[in-house]
């Protein structure tokens, strides 16, 4: 499929496009015949073949239409490119006006914060009551947990460039720290939260010390193994962790010492409100929002300090870093353990929210989702990670509401079962169209006078 | 550069050598291996304070290996490397850098996705903010092109500009000894001249000691007080820059067609 010449007249180009699309439809038809055209249903006397030629027709027509559309879009893009020099050719990116995407990323984080802050209010108003807003606030909590995990992992993967496939291990350490400390010693959430971060950070250091001399693929495999080891220890060390049954009846979070109960000492009575179990949920929402923003704040601050700069330099070129007098092992360790500590914070929040932890919650899939959020968001971009978390965690929820699809694909079609398939498609699409992630622009951490955005398109792919 | 200039440099060298002080960097009997292959076979070399010393040799002679061995990566399997009276043979690379040795490595190795300014900040990591502004001003005077591009990503600059940045970044750590690995590699003659002029200024005006590894033997020997010739991991010849330039063997091996060329005629 050669790309059409950008200066070709539309009429002759159109014929080529239609031919091309027809070929696509034909291939699709060929594929559909064995896969979709007949469904086997269990009938009274063995399997019955149910023909579905209508569906095949719809699919082929859709593929034809999509291909035509795609070629038309590409044609327009190529024509545009022929007129303007590609940004990759320009060596001088300094004086350029920030483009629309760059402007968006500048205000985007504030928009995100504003929406996040007002979500409980918005949900309450739009659903007509605090209790009926529970679904939305719970979803918000879930998304924010992943935003926080994404931001934490971003320190390790996005900034320091260390591929960590076992991040969920630190999430688990944090969750079990709170679960065990509170059920065994009766420590409150506010004491356990920093402890959980500390423990996770220590585990990060413990793992990091021997393995950080590894690079790239090897490091990824060791961290993957570490994630599994932690999970297996949690399952098998029954005396302490309760094994596969997990730890239950973990104390709930209190409002800085005031419990969310209906009695006189409770939150509602103290503040003169009517008791509503939603107070706790809203509190948890703002708690995780605060934790996530804290993660973001620390990351942004550190980026401007020498240590953050050293992380980024390490990602770019380790040998050059060393010859500049930077202790690469210590620098990697700080990134690894700081990322782990934030994972620990998120873990202890997870435990206090669920009131129950078990090894089930800390499978490799979790690590993969968090990593996918970071990669999808554009490594190193804070806003991109937030958007990706909304898409990756909120997306499946959206799928549940796509009931009309069952009219097309048959009664038993459950869109949410296709979640992972859609993740895969989204990833492939990203690789093709935005290989540097949703937000691939970053502001220089430091600059003299005016800040200038540097687009990812201006640089060749980094290595390291 | 004029002939008179060379004579001045040669005189300076003699003065330094007659001083009788121990050299700033002294390499003694250093052998380095990649697996079982010996890249350096007992190299002896001295760099005195305030000197420009160049090491010339063909591809694969072990020039870059020697420079990296000084920095501890790869490590010397035998022999000693002494810097300022201290044995650094077994020191970690970052520890060596902290003693005041800076390096502009082969292939530049700037941080491509960070801005030029951030690259320079990385160079100054040993000193933090203490004299950053002052040093920035200094390297900007030395390399005006770097100043023009402070806010550009380093990876978007041309090869020559990246080379200047690599040297500027090394200078930000205020080194006593500057190691330069093939600063002229793949650059246009005019750019090479600019970089060699800058090296000369650093040595003359700041008294910086410079150890230069080069394939561009003609320019390097013209610039250097003293030079060494490395062949297959062994030092085969040493002398002042002028002596080596006039040596028939050096001429034949490294200056073929390059001898007597005008200053702009860079030749590998």
What keyword list fits this structure?
heterodimer; A: 464 residues; mainly alpha; 17 helices; 2 strands; 66% helix; 3% strand; disordered N terminus; disordered C terminus; B: 268 residues; alpha/beta; six-stranded mixed β-sheet; four-stranded antiparallel β-sheet; 10 strands; 24% strand; globular
Describe the protein's architecture and organization.
The complex is a heterodimer of chains A (464) and B (268). Chain A has 17 helices and two strands. Chain A has helices spanning 10-35, 53-83, 100-127, 134-159, 168-185, 189-211, 216-236, 238-241, 267-270, 278-304, 306-316, 318-323, 328-354, 364-377, 382-400, 405-409, 419-433, and strands at 38-43, 46-51. The longest helix of chain A is centred in the N-terminal third of the chain and has 31 residues, at 53-83. Chain B has 268 residues and is of the alpha/beta class. Chain B has helices at 3-18, 63-70, 93-98, 116-123, 132-142, 144-148, 159-171, 189-206, 217-223, 241-246, 248-254; strands spanning 25-34, 37-47, 52-57, 78-83, 86-87, 101-104, 177-181, 209-214, 226-231, 234-240. In chain B, strand 4 and strand 5 (86-87) form a beta hairpin. In chain B, helix 4 packs parallel to helix 7 (159-171). Mean pLDDT of chain B is 85; it is low at 1-16 and 258-268. The A-B interface holds A 91-94, 306, 309-310, 312-313, 316-317, 319-328, 444-448, 452, 454, 458-460, 462 and B 71, 73, 92-94, 97-98, 102-103, 105, 109-115, 117-118, 121-123, 125-126, 128, 149-153, 155-158, 169-170, 173.
């Amino acid at each position: 499929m050669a790309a059409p010449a950008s200066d070709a007249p539309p009429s002759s180009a159109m014929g080529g496009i239609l031919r091309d699309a027809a070929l696509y439809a034909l291939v699709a038809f060929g594929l559909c015949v064995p896969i979709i055209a007949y469904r086997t249903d269990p009938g009274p006397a063995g399997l019955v073949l149910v023909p579905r030629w209508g569906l095949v027709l719809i699919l082929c027509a859709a593929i034809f239409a999509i291909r035509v559309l795609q070629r038309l879009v590409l044609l327009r893009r190529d024509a545009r490119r022929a007129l303007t020099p590609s940004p990759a050719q320009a060596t001088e990116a300094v004086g350029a006006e920030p483009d629309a995407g760059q402007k968006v990323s500048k205000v985007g984080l504030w928009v995100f914060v504003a929406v996040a802050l007002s979500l409980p209010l918005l949900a309450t108003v739009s659903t007509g009551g605090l209790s009926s807003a529970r679904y939305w606030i719970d979803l918000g909590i879930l998304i924010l947990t992943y935003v926080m995990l994404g931001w934490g992992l971003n320190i390790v993967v996005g900034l320091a460039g260390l591929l960590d496939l076992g991040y969920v291990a630190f999430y688990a350490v944090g969750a079990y720290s709170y679960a065990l400390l509170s059920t065994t010693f009766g420590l409150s959430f506010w004491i356990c939260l920093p402890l959980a971060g500390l423990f996770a950070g220590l585990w990060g250091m413990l793992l990091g010390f021997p393995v950080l001399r590894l690079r790239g693929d090897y490091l990824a495999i060791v961290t993957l193994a570490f994630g599994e080891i932690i999970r297996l220890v949690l399952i098998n060390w029954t005396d302490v962790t309760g094994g596969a049954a997990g730890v239950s009846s973990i104390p709930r979070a209190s409002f800085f010492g005031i419990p969310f109960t209906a009695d006189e000492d409770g939150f509602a009575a103290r503040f003169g409100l009517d008791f509503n179990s939603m107070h706790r949920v809203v509190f948890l929402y703002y708690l995780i929002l605060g934790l996530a923003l804290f993660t973001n704040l620390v990351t942004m601050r550190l980026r401007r300090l020498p240590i953050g700069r050293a992380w980024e330099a390490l990602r770019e070129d380790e040998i050059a870093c060393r010859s500049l007098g930077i202790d690469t092992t210590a620098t990697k360790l700080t990134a690894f353990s700081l990322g782990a500590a934030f994972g620990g914070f998120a873990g202890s929040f997870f435990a206090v929210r669920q009131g129950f932890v078990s090894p089930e919650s800390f499978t490799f899939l979790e690590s993969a989702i968090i990593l996918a959020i970071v990669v999808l968001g554009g490594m190193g971009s804070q806003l991109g990670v937030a958007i990706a978390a909304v898409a990756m965690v909120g997306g499946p929820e959206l799928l549940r509401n796509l009931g009309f699809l069952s009219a097309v694909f048959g009664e038993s079609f459950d869109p949410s079962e296709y979640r992972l398939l859609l993740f895969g498609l989204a990833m492939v699409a990203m690789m093709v169209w935005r290989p540097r992630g949703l937000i691939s622009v970053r502001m220089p951490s430091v600059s003299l006078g005016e800040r200038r955005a540097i687009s990812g398109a201006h640089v060749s792919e980094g290595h390291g | 550069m004029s002939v008179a200039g060379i004579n001045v440099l040669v005189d300076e060298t003699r003065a330094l050598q007659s001083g009788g002080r121990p050299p700033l960097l002294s390499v003694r009997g250093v052998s380095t291996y990649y697996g079982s292959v010996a890249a350096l076979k007992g190299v002896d070399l001295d760099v005195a304070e305030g000197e420009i010393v160049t090491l010339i040799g063909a591809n694969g002679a072990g020039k870059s290996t020697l420079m990296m061995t000084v920095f501890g990566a790869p490590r010397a399997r035998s022999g000693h490397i002494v810097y300022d009276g201290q044995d650094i043979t077994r020191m970690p690379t970052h520890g060596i850098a902290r003693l005041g040795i800076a390096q502009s490595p082969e292939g530049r190795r700037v941080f491509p996705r960070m801005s030029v300014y951030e690259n320079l900040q990385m160079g100054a990591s040993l000193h933090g903010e203490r004299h950053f502004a002052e040093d920035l001003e200094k390297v900007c005077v030395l390399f005006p092109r770097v100043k023009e591009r402070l806010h550009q990503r380093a990876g978007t600059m041309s090869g020559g500009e990246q080379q200047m940045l690599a040297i500027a970044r090394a200078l930000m750590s205020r080194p006593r000894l500057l190691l330069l690995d093939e600063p002229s590699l793949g650059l246009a003659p005019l750019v090479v001249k600019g970089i060699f002029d800058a090296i000369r200024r650093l040595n003359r005006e700041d008294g910086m000691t410079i150890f230069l590894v080069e394939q561009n033997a003609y320019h390097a020997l013209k610039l250097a007080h003293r030079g060494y010739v490395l062949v297959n991991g062994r030092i085969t010849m040493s002398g002042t820059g002028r002596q080596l330039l006039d040596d028939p063997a050096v001429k034949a091996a490294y200056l073929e067609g390059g001898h007597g060329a005008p200053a702009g005629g860079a030749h590998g």
